[in-house]
Design goal:
This protein is mostly helical and 130 residues long. The protein contains 5 helices and no strands. Helix content is 86%, strand content 0%. α1 runs antiparallel to α2 and α2 runs antiparallel to α3.
Length: 130
């Protein structure tokens, strides 16, 4: 039961941060980074919701694999996506303004959530009986 509460708390925090980022995106000028970033974040929210709702002992491997996908996509969104899009599109003025508005969410809070999900997955894997 504690595991479900932890997953629900992380999902709630992540969802609130994503809603904040969507509001900032809507109020600002549109940019390619924000669009791709928010699409990937909505997919991550969907996966986190699926993980937090489906807490059963038999689904541990599925939960661990979804957490691994979340962590990889999250690190990609937070640290790699800007580098790729700036080279592909070449225009980053509005993207830099958007990134500066969501900097704490993008570079601090969400990576901590990804780290916590990785730690939870590792602990679940260590406690799993094969």
């Amino acid at each position: 039961m504690r595991l479900k509460k932890i997953y629900m708390l992380l999902t709630s925090i992540f969802s609130l941060l994503t809603i904040y980022e969507v509001i900032i995106y809507i109020l600002g000028k549109s940019n390619y980074f924000g669009l791709f970033y928010l699409i990937l974040n909505l997919f991550i929210v969907f996966l986190m919701f699926m993980v937090s709702v489906n807490i059963k002992k038999g689904n541990t491997m599925i939960r661990i694999s979804k957490n691994a996908i979340i962590v990889v996509l999250g690190i990609f969104c937070s640290f790699v996506l800007k580098l790729i899009l700036s080279k592909v599109f070449g225009y980053v003025d509005e993207s830099n303004a958007y990134i500066s508005n969501i900097f704490i969410s993008l570079k601090v809070v969400k990576p901590i959530i990804y780290l916590m999900l990785g730690i939870l997955s590792y602990l679940e894997y260590k406690n799993m009986k094969i």
